[in-house]
Amino acid sequence: MAAITVLGDLLVCAVLLLASIGVIGTEPTTRAEETAAWQSAGKLYFGWLVVGAASFALLRIPKALLAHVATMLLSPVALFVLLLSSGLG
Fold it and tell me: Which of 2, 15, 51, 74 has its CB 3.0 to 4.6 Å from that of 63, i.e. a possible disulfide?
């Protein structure tokens, strides 16, 4: 269950990132649209984090809970480090 959780979380993080920069959906053309896209992605990210953590806690699946929280918190950090190391940041 933990492996499926990690894969699902990585997929969600990737889709939210692609949606926030306009690869999926409409590309933001103004600063206001860009800000709105990032805010929407942020709300969905934190909603996914909280609902997933609450669900796994209520279902008493500690390995999946730990995997979910770790993946959701470490994915943005890993992406940031990857961008900095590639020279894009």
Answer: 2
Q: Which of 41, 44, 46, 49 is nearest to 65 (CA)?
A: 49
Tokens representing 63? 């390995």
Distance CA 89, CA 81 (A): 9
DSSP code string of 16-78: HHHHHHTSSSPPP-SHHHHHHHHHHHHHHHHHHHHHHHHHHHHTT-HHHHHHHHHHHHHHHHH
Say what the pTM is: 0.83
Distances (CA, A) of 3 to 8, 9, 35, 64, 80: 9, 10, 33, 8, 23
* Structure tokens, 27: 């590309």
As given in the structure block, the two tokens for residue 6 are 């990690």
Per-residue pLDDT tens over the stretch 1-52: 999 999 999 999 989 988 888 888 888 889 999 999 999 999 999 999 999 9
